Amino acid sequence: MEAKEINYPLGYGKAPWMFKGSALYQLHLVKSETARAFIPKDFRLVEAFGYTLGGFFLANYEDSPAGIFDELVVIAGIVWNPPTSCAWAARVLVNSDEACIHGRKDVGLPSQVAKFSKKITALPKTTESRFGGFLNMIGMADSPDTTSSCMNIRVSEGNGEAAKDICSINLGTTLCYAIYRTTVPQPDSNKWIGPVIKISLPSFSGRTEYNPHLLKYSCQIECRVRAIPAAKISRPFVSDVDGRTSSEGESSEIDTGEDKRNLSLSVMLSKPILALEFSCLKMKVDDPTIVPESPPSENSILSL
Fold it and tell me: Does the pLDDT at position 67 exceed 90?
């Protein structure tokens, strides 16, 4: 296959691209019919009992080819790619024009410029529950002698008056410090922050107006990881979102930006099953490769 010439955005250069920072990786049970609206028809969706595994990846990069920026990747679900499976991003929101252009043209992502409005709020002290005591025993709860606070992140797509609210993400004290390093309490130096692990997150992308090719790429991650309480997701303050999916259980095209935003919100509002904190994050993103075209599958859903 003849290699194509790529005009990289200023600052990114040639792959691999390196990112450093911290992130929250939250896994949700997403309705298969919602995920199918984002995934090409010739892919087989990995699902069980009408649900697939999706969620979101919220990151704050302190060092990257595009400098410091925030990123929210909404993951629609998992598609089958023998002998393994890959994630499919429904929407990528970044507060960096350079990162948005790179994501669209070079990685084939549905990237959009967004605004991340952050507000820290002090929380009233409450009686510790038995569950909170358990979290404290295993090093996941906040120190009892610190002021409790939370951060609410309002994510809006676009800039200025044309910006559209996507959702609000509420991070507790632990996540507040782990991702943004901006909470009032300082971390306990003796608190367990999880083991160092190395993982590979393979993903498909492409089939967009900016990059029509079907692409496959992987993120090589080295970080400290630990399970934490899930972040709370809420609807926009002013919106007419009703969580509609694309036709009665069947795949269909979603053409308008409003439809895509509504379905992305449906993914975010789905049931969380696991939240992982990635601290001391080092992520290497390889250059995507073009996936050869294949005939449509007779069965677009892989049941487990």
Answer: yes
pLDDT given for residue 128 in this prediction = 52
Work out the burial of residue 280: count CB atoms within 10 Å of its CB; fewer than 13 is exposed, 13-18 middle, 19 or more buried. Answer: middle
- With beta carbons less than 8 A apart as the criterion, state whether 218 and 203 touch: yes
SS (H, E, C) the chain: CCCCCCCCCCCCCCCCEEEEEEEEEEEEEEEHHHHHCCCCCCCCEEEECCEEEEEEEEEEEEECCCCCEEEEEEEEEEEEECCEEEEEEEEEEECCHHHHHHHHHHCCCCEEEEEEEEEEEECCCCCCCHHHHHHHHCCCCCCCCCCCEEEEEEEEECCHHHCEEEEEEEECHHHHHHHHCCCCCCCCCCCCCCCEEEEEEEEEEECCCCCCCEEEEEEEEEEEEEECCCCEEECCCCCCCCCCCCCCCCCCCCCCHHHHHHHHHHHHCCEEEEEEEEEEEEEEECCCEECCCCCCCCCCEEEC
C-alpha 122/C-alpha 147 separation (Å) is 7
**Cα 155-161-162 angle, rounded to 5 deg:** 70
Q: Is the dihedral of CA 268, 274, 280, 286 positive or negative?
A: negative
| Alpha carbons 212 and 194: distance in angstroms, whole number | 40
Give the pLDDT score at 121.
81
Residue 257 has pLDDT above 80, yes or no: no
Mean pLDDT of 112-130: 76
Residue 190 pLDDT class (50, 70, 90 cuts): low
Taking the whole predicted model, whether its pTM rises above 0.70 is answered as yes
